[in-house]
């Protein structure tokens, strides 16, 4: 029963991704679909943050004090924000760098190595965010 409360936000996010994908396929502008995704993410975040049933379902131990559990919760939120924002930034960077790299490679094949470096730098941002999240989570565990 406790896992049902955790599955609801995940199902909502997955459904919103599917609906946004279908909207883009039917001709909706991609920018509007991205804004719809961000709005649905904000709604899920606020529901999880404000709803005490969902927050209490994630806590399995009853012996944890209130101060420690709120500190752990804030650490989890910090790790999620670090990963989420860095992945969004990395996706935007790769989204701009990859088409430019393909265009540069199609004009001159010698530019492949240089353009690949710029695409990898965009992906590195997401890896650094994940590393920060791992460091945060290792401190509380």
What spatial form do the alpha-carbon principal axes imply?
Answer: flat
Give me the Rg, rounded.
20 Å
The level of helicity is over 70%
SS summary, helix count: 5
Distance between the termini: 25 Å
Order of helices and strands: HHHHH
What features would you describe in this structure?
It is a single chain. The protein is flat and about 55 Å long. It has 5 helices and no strands. The protein is 87% helix and 0% strand. Helix 1 packs antiparallel against helix 2 and helix 4 (66-107) packs antiparallel against helix 5. The protein has helices at 2-25, 30-50, 52-57, 66-107, 112-140. It has 2 domains: 1-58, no CATH class; 63-141, Up-down Bundle (F1FO ATP Synthase). It has 141 residues and is mostly helical.
Quick tags:
141 residues; mainly alpha; F1FO ATP Synthase; 2 domains; 5 helices; flat
Task: Characterize this entry briefly.
With 141 residues, the protein is mainly alpha-helical. The protein is 87% helix and 0% strand.
Helices, strands, pairings?
Layout: H1 2-25, H2 30-50, H3 52-57, H4 66-107, H5 112-140
Helix pairs in contact: 1-2, 4-5
């Amino acid at each position: 029963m406790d896992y049902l409360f955790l599955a609801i936000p995940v199902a909502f996010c997955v459904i919103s991704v599917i609906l946004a994908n279908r909207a883009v396929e039917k001709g909706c502008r991609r920018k509007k679909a991205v804004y719809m995704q961000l709005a649905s993410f904000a709604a899920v975040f606020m529901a999880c943050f404000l709803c005490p049933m969902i927050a209490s379902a994630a806590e399995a131990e009853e012996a944890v004090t209130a101060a420690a559990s709120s500190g752990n919760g804030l650490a989890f939120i910090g790790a999620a924000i670090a990963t989420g924002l860095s992945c969004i930034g990395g996706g935007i960077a790769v989204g701009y760098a990859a088409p430019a790299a393909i265009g540069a490679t199609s004009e001159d094949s010698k530019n492949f190595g240089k353009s690949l470096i710029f695409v990898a730098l965009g992906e590195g941002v997401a890896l650094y965010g994940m590393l920060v999240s791992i460091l945060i989570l290792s401190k509380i565990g």
